[in-house]
Write a sequence for this structure.
């Protein structure tokens, strides 16, 4: 199965539990330490602090291949992976890569002592964006075209469990789907599902 | 980096103005040639700069991680986009918005670009432009094509060119204006864009328009060329023209513009500016960037001689239809409302009342107001931009502009619609009150993204904004209207000279470690088109600046006489007294284990100047230099006090001496027996610090040393008010540079 749409620049956002209790300030030193310690294979470069902006990108770890952030767009706080560099392979490969990166980053954040266990995965909500309007305009037709690919991917990610899928309606926005599962998952489970 | 980069050209073919499409094809070819090594990196750098594509911090391939420097190994290896500027390093894209005017589609385009190429934030600048950060150079042709299709060019947004032509954002609606300057500013912008006479400048050239002389909106006094609307009676008819100024500018040492002509008819503004451009291109300094702005040429020649040359040049110009073909339309130019004029809203919530008070301004057209949308630190998200597009479509004929205070104004809002407009803005977090007030802080990018940043201006602005917003309703009315402006370094992109409370980043050494500081600049004036420039009073550690704000504002509230402005208060109380009031804040923390002072706001890494580029200063560190530099700093302050009390000669002499003493402090490090003779000190300084480039600023080069050499050469000449003022600024900068040089010596030893 392959979609006529080339799914590049995949963004995956994993929504956090109890967003009101999360303070983003301690993330700044954490992200700086990730740069210092080269925690990922990707090249990490800088930290941008947008806490002053309403429902904005929060605190962003800028990288060459991708950005990582704790993002509050649409007042939905989540750990977001934004793939900037193109990737070879299939659409499934790219969805997997971005999701794995988001999960891995979140796992690391959950374990960061500086965050005192406050930043936790909500277990049920994931958003997927394609950050390129030319490849994937935010239209019903795009959704139709990518649905089979997405469904195949989500089936694997959530191990056949039920989920609902909604699609942001504003054609001016990025192509985006929000997924909500009926069961709650831990980050490690989802990583294991992807690896299987 | 986007996969779609190969497709935009075709997709937008026929939708871009032909000339822009062609230019962008050329730019793309230049990128390809650079990648093949067929264009020299310097040439390529100027090519991209002229298209608004700037470098950004860490693009030299190294970054301080808080404990040590680390190399950044970019995938494109050694490929550069300019000297010491790595290809893959994220950069900044400036987008020119003439007069700040946009339509809804353009707001939406900006939103798309912020999302796809940047980090979901668009930033409004102090010259009505937009900036996007963290942009990969390979994405810039697509980004520019999408802008071109929306009718926007980035051409000449940076580089040695005519920069954005700014204009008062209230033009056409303001009760105090002489007439609407909008069409004239557009005509000048269009005429100068890409003009052959503007391609050979030694430095940038910034024009600005204002509708009146008394308000700040145009800041014409601090521009290379400034126009203030004016009329005169000619044969019983009102003839439009402009008061024309030339040779102003901020930068390290700010210059007030000089009056070129008190009335230039509108038909003459284009040819006269062209003549000015030609004189500037011909006679302006080219080799030494630091003296290349037109302000130096005007100063050196004197305004009379300069004017004579320009008028001579004017006579030689071949007539050009464009000089006047806009004039008729310009006189007819009016913006129209979408909705009917309305009544001021009556009953309202407290929040709405507050917003009405600070964020609306009555238009001269009854029933309409201009609404200000205050952006924290000038930042706005893609979603907010789209919401703004919806709002301006719904309530106006898309009449929105950016402002030099890093905000938006929505013009032609019917008073009837105010409750709905407020509701719509509030829903997307754009309904904060306090526009133009003390919470509405202006800041340059500073150490966040600027390569030249010394201190974190945005970090400080964020902190001050947070603190002031929390207590803003308790603040005294007189304090509410003060302006805070912050620059990350002496270059003054944050316009700190024209604030009530201005700050610019400097560094100082405390206990052997570099500590981020800000100079507190007092006495500036925002009103009257930047009526006067402030001068530095004291360098205070960054972490103490919020206390400086509290202390100075409390003192103002307590001591001000009836109706006294902050500027007048500073003058009356005197800088000596105010400096004294800040003395304890200038000191390092009493508890040496308190490390918070050694990092900057919003950046937990231990502070360093090294990210600006590796300095060449290395040598033995002698701590007595700190005392000597402090003494020199005291002297420059005394010079300021002398100037303010009218002792011009003493001011100039003392400023000069302070430089000599700072130079001596450095020379003494390796030459303990240096005498007090200025000639010997200057000579020793030259061989030890200038010729060896130890004193050089990574970007400003030998500029600050030249201040000393010039002053020394002119030491026996009498001073004027202007020359003393410049010398005081130069002396302060020289001393700041001496501190930096000394800091780098420490860094070099420590690494
Ligand atoms: C030698 C280097 C620089 C000098 C002397 C300089 C000077 C200035 C001055 C004097 C202004 C504003 C006031 C005016 O209009 O006259 C300005 C504006 C500005 N500068 Fe700089 N600047 C320099 C480099 C930079 C860099 C590297 C950045 C950031 C990457 C930067 C960012 C800005 C911004 C955001 C503005 C408001 C801008 C606009 O839209 O034109 N500047 N600069
Ligand atoms: S003032 Fe200095 S730090 Fe701020 S943007 Fe200008 S050059 Fe950079």
């Amino acid at each position: 199965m392959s979609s006529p749409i080339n799914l590049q620049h995949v963004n995956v956002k994993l929504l956090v539990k109890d967003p009101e209790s999360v303070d983003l300030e301690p993330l700044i030193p954490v992200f700086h330490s990730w740069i210092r310690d080269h925690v990922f294979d990707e090249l990490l470069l800088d930290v941008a602090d947008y806490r002053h902006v309403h429902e904005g990108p929060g605190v962003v770890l800028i990288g060459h291949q991708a950005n990582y952030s704790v993002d509050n767009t649409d007042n939905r706080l989540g750990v977001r992976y934004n793939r900037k560099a193109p990737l070879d392979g299939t659409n499934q490969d790219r969805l997997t890569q971005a999701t794995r990166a988001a999960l891995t980053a979140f796992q690391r954040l959950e374990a960061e002592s500086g965050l005192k266990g406050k930043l936790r995965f909500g277990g049920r909500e994931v958003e997927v964006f394609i950050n390129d309007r030319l490849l994937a305009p935010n239209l019903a037709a795009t959704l139709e075209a990518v649905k089979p690919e997405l469904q195949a991917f989500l089936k694997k990610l959530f191990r056949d469990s039920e989920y609902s899928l909604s699609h942001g309606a504003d054609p001016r926005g990025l192509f985006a789907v929000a997924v909500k599962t009926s069961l709650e998952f831990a980050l490690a489970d989802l990583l294991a599902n992807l690896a299987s | 980096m986007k996969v779609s980069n190969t497709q935009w050209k075709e997709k937008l073919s026929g939708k871009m103005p032909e000339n822009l499409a062609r230019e962008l094809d050329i730019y793309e070819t230049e990128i390809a040639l650079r990648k093949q090594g067929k264009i020299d990196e310097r040439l390529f750098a100027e090519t991209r700069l002229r298209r608004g594509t700037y470098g950004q911090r860490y693009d030299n391939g190294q970054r301080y991680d808080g404990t040590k420097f680390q190399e950044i190994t970019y995938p494109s290896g050694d490929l550069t986009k300019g000297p010491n500027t790595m290809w893959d390093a994220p950069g900044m894209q400036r987008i020119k918005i003439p007069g700040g005017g946009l339509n809804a589609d353009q707001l939406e385009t900006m939103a798309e670009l912020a999302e796809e190429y940047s980090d979901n934030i668009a930033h409004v600048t102090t010259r009505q432009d937009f900036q996007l950060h963290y942009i990969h150079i390979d994405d810039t042709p697509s980004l520019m094509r999408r802008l071109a299709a929306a009718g926007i060019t980035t051409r000449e947004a940076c580089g040695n060119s005519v920069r954005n032509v700014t204009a008062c954002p209230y033009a056409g609606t303001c009760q105090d204006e002489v007439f609407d300057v909008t069409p004239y500013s557009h005509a000048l912008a269009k005429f100068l864009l890409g003009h052959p006479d503007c391609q050979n400048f030694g430095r940038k050239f910034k024009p600005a328009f204002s509708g009146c002389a008394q308000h700040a909106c145009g800041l014409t006094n601090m521009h290379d060329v400034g126009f203030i609307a004016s009329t005169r009676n000619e044969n019983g008819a009102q003839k439009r023209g402009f008061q024309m100024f030339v040779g102003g500018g901020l930068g390290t040492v700010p210059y007030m513009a000089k009056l070129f002509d008190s009335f230039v008819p509108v038909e003459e503004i284009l040819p006269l500016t062209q003549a000015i451009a030609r004189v500037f291109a011909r006679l302006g300094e080219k080799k030494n960037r630091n003296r290349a702005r037109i302000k130096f040429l005007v100063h050196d020649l004197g305004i009379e001689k300069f004017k004579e040359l320009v008028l001579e040049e004017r006579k030689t110009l071949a007539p050009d239809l464009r000089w006047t073909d806009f004039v008729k339309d310009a006189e007819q130019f009016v913006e129209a409302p979408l909705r009917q004029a309305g009544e001021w809203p009556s009953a309202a919530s407290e929040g709405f009342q507050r917003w009405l008070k600070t964020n609306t301004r009555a238009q001269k057209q009854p029933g309409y107001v201009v609404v200000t949308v205050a952006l924290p630190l000038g930042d706005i998200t893609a979603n907010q931009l789209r919401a703004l597009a919806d709002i301006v479509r719904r309530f106006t004929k898309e009449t929105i502009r950016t402002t030099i205070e890093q905000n938006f104004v929505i013009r032609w809002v019917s008073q009837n619609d105010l409750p709905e407009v407020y509701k719509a803005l509030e829903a997307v977090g754009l309904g904060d009150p306090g526009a133009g007030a003390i919470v509405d802080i202006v800041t340059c990018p500073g150490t966040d993204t600027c390569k030249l940043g010394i201190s974190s201006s945005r970090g400080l602005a964020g902190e001050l904004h947070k603190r002031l917003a929390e207590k803003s309703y308790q603040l005294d009315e007189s304090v509410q209207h003060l302006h805070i402006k912050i620059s990350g370094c002496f270059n003054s992109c944050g316009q700190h000279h024209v604030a009530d409370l201005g700050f610019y980043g400097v560094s100082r050494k405390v206990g052997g470690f570099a500590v981020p500081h800000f100079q507190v600049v007092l006495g500036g004036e925002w009103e009257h088109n930047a009526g006067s420039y402030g001068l530095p009073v004291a360098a205070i550690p960054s972490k103490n600046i919020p206390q400086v704000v509290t202390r100075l504002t409390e003192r103002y509230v307590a001591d001000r006489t009836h109706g006294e402005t902050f500027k007048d208060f500073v003058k009356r109380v005197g800088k000596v007294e105010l400096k004294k009031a800040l003395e304890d804040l200038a000191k390092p923390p009493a508890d040496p284990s308190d490390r918070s002072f050694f990092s900057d706001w919003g950046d937990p890494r231990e502070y360093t100047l090294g990210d600006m580029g590796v300095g060449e200063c290395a040598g033995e560190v002698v701590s007595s230099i700190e005392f000597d530099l402090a003494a020199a700093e005291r002297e420059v302050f005394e010079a300021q006090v002398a100037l303010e009390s009218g002792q011009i000669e003493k001011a100039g002499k003392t400023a000069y001496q302070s430089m000599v003493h700072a130079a001596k402090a450095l020379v003494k490090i390796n030459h303990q027996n240096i005498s007090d003779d200025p000639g010997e000190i200057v000579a020793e300084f030259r061989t030890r610090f200038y010729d060896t480039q130890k004193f050089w600023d990574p970007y400003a080069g030998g500029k600050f040393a030249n201040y000393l050499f010039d002053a020394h050469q002119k030491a026996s000449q009498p001073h004027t008010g202007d020359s003393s003022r410049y010398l005081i600024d130069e002396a302060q900068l020289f001393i700041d540079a001496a501190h930096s040089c000394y800091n780098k010596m420490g860094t070099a030893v420590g690494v």
Remarks:
- Confidence is low (pLDDT under 50) at residues 613-622, 747-751 of chain B.
- DSSP finds 24 helices and 24 strands in chain B.
- Chain B touches chain A through 53 residues (CB under 8 Å).
- Chain B has five domains: 3-149, 173-332, 350-427, 437-570, 613-751.
